[in-house]
Design brief:
Layout (H helix, E strand, L loop, with lengths): L1 H13 L20 H9 L7 E7 L6 H12 L6 E5 L8 H10 L7 E4 L9 H8 L5 E5 L2 E6 L15 H7 L8 E6 L13 H9 L4 E6 L6 E3 L8 E3 L7 E8 L2 E8 L1
Length: 264
């Protein structure tokens, strides 16, 4: 009996990575890893694609059924290049929540990338996001347009003046001969009380001073909104929540951005 107990104990220790041992763990045997990098590899750089067409959605927390339907609707829309899930994948920053959504989104025909939301940074959510999706601040270029995805969840950092990371953004916004336009993507918009008020001016000025900057895309409020926080004419666009059965289809042609609301 003692030998059997020792055997099972050793087996448990050696296999700990294959079992759920805590609701607060940041990985398990079925969770995905490096989703953004892997999907961007599938997407490619879009050279020669003169019409960029993508879906913007967000706030999928507590909305797995709607996410299933969302995939069906998106798959029926022709010529979608990619999908952006703009934060709040989860409600409580728990691995199981993010796994449910990420596994559901595998049914999408176009590749998708995720941006971190404020709810994703609760509990061990940030660690889960890093393991499952990748960096909190990252960028990619498709069809000559640079998409700058970043953490704007200031409240989760106690408004310490570091989030969003404006110096990093300015580096990403530097002119490049291979880039014709720029789009910023983050969860919390500048008109939210969850955005660091001390950083609004520097943040919007960084965009306004960038030639070819097309739009700032956000989620968080669970309601569609189009607004202009300054005189630059740059649109700040907020998509509704997954649970509201609405998303945006965004199109960029000849460096002109347009969008339409889609209800499902």
């Amino acid at each position: 009996m003692r030998i059997l107990l020792l055997f099972f104990l050793a087996l448990t220790v050696l296999s700990c990575n294959h079992f759920e041992f805590s609701p607060n763990q940041s990985f398990d045997r079925i969770s995905l890893k490096d989703v953004n990098v892997n999907n961007l590899r599938k997407l490619g750089n879009g050279i020669g694609d003169d019409t960029i067409k993508f879906v913007l959605t967000g706030d999928s927390q507590r909305s797995r059924d709607e996410t299933v339907e969302f995939c069906k609707v998106v798959n029926a829309i022709p010529n979608i290049d990619f999908v952006i899930l703009d934060g709040d994948i989860s409600e409580f920053g728990v691995l199981k929540e993010m796994t449910w959504i990420s596994r559901t989104l595998e049914d999408l025909r176009p590749p998708y990338v995720a941006v971190i939301g404020n709810h994703d940074e609760t509990a061990r959510g940030k660690e889960v996001f890093l393991n499952m999706f990748g960096a909190l601040d990252y960028s990619f270029v498709y069809g000559g347009i640079k998409f700058i995805c970043h953490d704007s969840n200031s409240r989760e950092y106690n408004f310490d003046g570091q989030v969003p990371n404006i110096p990093w953004l300015k580096e990403e916004l530097k002119p490049d001969a291979n880039i014709t336009g720029y789009v910023a993507v983050s969860h919390v918009p500048v008109n939210s009380e969850d955005f660091d008020s001390k950083l609004v001016k520097g943040y919007t000025e960084a965009f306004a001073q960038t030639p070819g900057f097309l739009a700032s895309l956000n989620a968080h409020t669970h309601n569609y909104q189009l607004f202009y926080p300054d005189k630059s004419g740059i649109p700040y666009i907020i998509t509704s929540a997954m649970g509201s059965s609405e998303f945006l289809v965004v199109q960029i042609v000849n460096n002109k951005l347009s969008f339409e609301r889609v209800f499902f």
